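In the previous chapter we treated chains in isolation. Here, by contrast, the input contains two separate entities that must be folded as one system, with a combined length of 176 residues.
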Amino acid sequence: MKVRILVSFKESVLDPQGQTVKNALHTLGYDFIKDVRQGKVFEVELQGLSEDQAQKVIPEIADKVLANPIIEKFSWEVLSEGKKVSRN
Amino acid sequence: MKVRILVSFKESVLDPQGQTVKNALHTLGYDFIKDVRQGKVFEVELQGLSEDQAQKVIPEIADKVLANPIIEKFSWEVLSEGKKVSRN
């Protein structure tokens, strides 16, 4: 099973990388860009886990290893063939 | 309109960050992790663009600024309220 975990700063946290990208895009003439927030994405291949087990273990991994829960939030979704199931 | 752009290494490109995360997870006992690929995610807020215009401009921005097309690939989706439309 393949899952995608998205990690980004909480809304209240400044995102200087996103700001830099936004400014670069404005310099290039893309004035319609109102905001850019940058984050990380992890595509994780799991072996021998049921979806119920994944539901328990993915938030654990995200909280412990992938995200810093003080300043970051995460969401994840199962990437099955053609089908996406989102979770927050 | 809000869009999410995912940028990750092409399959043929080594991903040392992802490998490091995988090894860290194995060390913590998560042996069922078969593979981890790490990438970047950009959540971009667009103002005053139709979806047709976005379809033209988002791949342009991704190719020019957000991704390095030699080693990276991107996909994007429109994040409307509750509804997701994916594109590759």
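Helices of chain A lie at 16-27, 51-66. Residues 59 and 86 of chain A are 13 Å apart (CA to CA). Compare these points with the single-chain example from earlier in the chapter.
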